[in-house]
UniProtKB/TrEMBL annotation:
GO molecular function, one term: DNA binding
Species per Swiss-Prot/TrEMBL record: Tenacibaculum singaporense
InterPro entries for this protein: Lambda_DNA-bd_dom_sf
Superkingdom: Bacteria
Protein name per the record: Bacteriophage CI repressor-like protein
Amino acid sequence: MSDFVDETYKRVEEVINYKRLNIRSFEEIIDVSNNSIGTAIRRKSSFKSNVLNKILHSFPEINPTWLLTGKGEMFLNNIDKTNEPASKYNLLDIKSKVKDNLIHLLLEDKEVKEAIATQVLEALKK
């Protein structure tokens, strides 16, 4: 059996604090229902993939490997670690780096690879 513990809620809370946002404004930015993030953080619950995708879409400077596993830095390499809006960054470069980090993550962590594969299969059924 695995020792994997999902502590994504801690990293989401860290992003909220770093961005100097309150939970409600963070929920509005990533377009999720009122109090869903706050409830998950209080309950120390994991987030569904759609919420994590919304976070990465809204904050493309966030390192997906770090968000999912806690490994690496909070921000993608070579990106200014400021609180400026993501729109100021070169989104094509960021998308490329996100893709590279996700591929690396898939190849590195068997449990994450299995979880993503399951979610992809479920999405294809819809």
